[in-house]
Amino acid sequence: xxxAPSSDRPPAAPxxxxxxxxxxxxxxxxxxxxxxxxxxxxxxxxxxxxxxxxNFTWHPGLLIDNTTLQVPFLADLVTLTDPTNPWTxxxxxxxxxxxxxxxxxxKFHIHRTEYNAYCRWVSENLxxxxxxxxxxxxxxxxxxxxxxxxxxxxDTHGEAEALGRAYTRNIALGIGTAPHxxxxxxxxxxxxxxxxxxxxxxLDHRQxxxxxxxxxxxxxxxxxxEIFLDLLQHRPSGKEKLHWxxxxxxFAPMEYSKLGLEQFTPDYTHYFHALPEPVRDQLLPQQWQLxxxxxAQTLAAIHDELxxxxxxxxxxxxxxxxxxxVRTAGRVGATRIELHLDxxxxxxxxxxxxxxVILATGYRERPTDALLAPLAPYLRRDTxxxxxxxxxQRLTLDPSVTGSIYVQNAERHTHGPxxxxxGLAAWRSATILNNLTDTTPYxxxxxxxxxxxxxxxxxxxxxxxxxxxLPEPAxxxxx
Length: 479
What we know:
Elements: E1 12-15, E2 23-26, H1 30-39, E3 47-50, H2 89-95, H3 99-105, H4 112-125, E4 129-130, E5 133-141, E6 146-154, E7 160-168, E8 170-173, E9 177-179, H5 186-189, E10 196-198, H6 202-210, E11 215-218, H7 222-233, E12 242-245, H8 266-274, H9 277-283, H10 288-291, H11 296-308, E13 318-321, E14 324-332, E15 336-343, E16 348-354, E17 356-359, E18 363-365, E19 404-407, H12 412-415, H13 425-437
Parallel strand pairs: 1-7, 2-3, 2-8, 3-4, 8-19, 10-17, 11-12, 11-17, 12-13
Antiparallel strand pairs: 5-6, 6-7, 9-18, 14-15, 15-16
Helix pairs in contact: 1-13, 7-11
């Protein structure tokens, strides 16, 4: 290991490996971890994956007790493409001598903490993963016909330890998403002394939040529901002092019918990608219940908990109001927060004073402009300025760039609501590897849904018009 530099000298000079990589993965979240796991048996591929974090962790602020994945355990890193792969969830259970307890538990949806532990197990045993590596720049080198990746290796304190450079023929971007904070609440959230936090950091602040007299949760998705339920279960009856606000017109369940879920299949992804750009942009907001709704069991648990608190004849001190926008927000006194609210359907306004705010306002794709700035002249964009992404998950680049940049969970605008869904992780990784190797190490099924999305497109064949019949000779004789 390189010796850490002293504080008065710069990091060591870049090191450059002699053999170029076939694939470099940027980011080691579940999606690039899936790609690494499926690439592992392909021994002819030379791969490496980088992440600036010290180890794998998956939404640590939301690993609330008893919360489960919203997809079945088969949606692990590899199974839906290669169930014989050594990095399946079932093999994780077998390795930890827990296969029989899992079998008898008859659970189809596993706990989030268990999924996180499974991914940690893969990341700690799979070769070619490099944590504590911060990617600084990605360039195209036309002389070498390779991508150049400059990185900084970090020490245990997150400080620069050494510089490095890797050359690769192809790149897979899997840098994930970042917590989204609405503009109206950003100044408060960026003030360390103000108790306005994103749900991504909920568990870090949970104990302090529970001491607040009044708490407001904003957001109608699964995270907002789970946090509201967790707070509710830890507040005394009749003194809950909880508000739950949402922009959506209702606290609605997530689409979970069997045919409805077929919109998370490769079939639907192909269909969505083939739609014209304006149609895709119009369709996505209408599909919010596919990925922004709430699990029906969580909704039932909230209702059960609220109902239980009415058994003595009273009502819980809670307010659940959908259809509300936060117009502006500010501080009142030293600690309190005032939210200015608009009700969309009523056209009314009011104010709410609270002691703490939890923003369950979702995530947005991390911008890649800074990372890919040297590649900007080569990138092709759509009419909204977003990267064009082809059916094989590749950014559309200038033909002079002979390598490929694949993207993971950054293509909702081109591939639809299934882009962030764990159930499509293995399929997408297989799509990338099949394209990268120009072979089919992972053959994909020809059909994945009972639903037929769209009408069949039959090519029009020109037809030769039949000649009109000649008119019969006129007969002026009358019989």
